[in-house]
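[recover] target loaded
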């Protein structure tokens, strides 16, 4: 896989992630939620809402966002940023699909998990 600094983990096939839903993968950084939009795009975020640490994987996916099931905070799947007027950021992880397999980059692209809560 590309990038000498990135490590990649095969996490299944795109069909293993439900449309408008999520699947959770345990990593050293904590649980990572893989989300699939209606159009089939796949995104990965640390499975913790920046507000109260709620499990984003249990939230509703709509358009390009996920809504935290605890307090309704909306998070952009592509950036991990909270939708205004809310504030906060969730670390995101790179995803790629190669030869019908989903690969999760094990290096977060956003803020480190320790700065979330």
């Amino acid at each position: 896989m590309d990038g000498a600094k990135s490590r990649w983990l095969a996490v299944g096939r795109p069909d293993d992630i439900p449309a408008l839903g999520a699947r959770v993968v345990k990593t050293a950084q904590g649980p990572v939620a893989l989300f699939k939009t209606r159009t089939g795009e796949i995104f990965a975020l640390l499975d913790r809402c920046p507000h109260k640490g709620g499990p984003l994987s249990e939230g509703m996916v709509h358009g390009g966002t996920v809504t935290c099931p605890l307090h309704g905070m909306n998070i952009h799947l592509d950036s991990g940023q909270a939708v205004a007027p809310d504030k906060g950021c969730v670390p995101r992880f790179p995803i790629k699909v190669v030869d019908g397999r989903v690969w999760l980059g094990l290096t977060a692209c956003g803020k480190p998990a320790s700065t979330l809560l």
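[recover] notes: The domain at 8-111 is CATH 2.102.10.10 (Rieske Iron-sulfur Protein).
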